[in-house]
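Problem 12. The chain below contains 127 residues. Write out its predicted structure in token notation.
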Amino acid sequence: MAHPSDRKYSNEHEWVLVQGDVATIGISDFAQDQLGEVVYVDLPSAGDVLATGDSFGEIESVKSVSELFAPLSGEIVEVNSALGDTPETVNSDPHGAGWMVKVKLEDAAQLDALMSAEEYDAFIVEG
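Solution.
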């Protein structure tokens, strides 16, 4: 499956969609597929500050528990609290309603370290 080309991807399987100075972060379709049925998502609070590579929560599926890693630095301005009641949205719409957090982008140059959709698709094939 080709991943949406309007965002960047990390090697930890998070995606980033930048709109102005806000970056929305979620996990890729590949990641949700590998996890299986998502049953719980633990996310931080608005106002928390992330540094690139920091763990910012956990996602639990029927198969395993995995950490979420910040693909860039910034302050969390919004959290997808709907995932508390409907974590399965991560499976059904990982690139849309299944987003995790929105971060005020600290340094747009950090995006250069992330992969394009084409690079990410090649990355997961190489696995």
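Discussion. Helices lie at 29-35, 89-92, 117-126. Students who got a different answer should revisit the alignment rule from Section 12.3.
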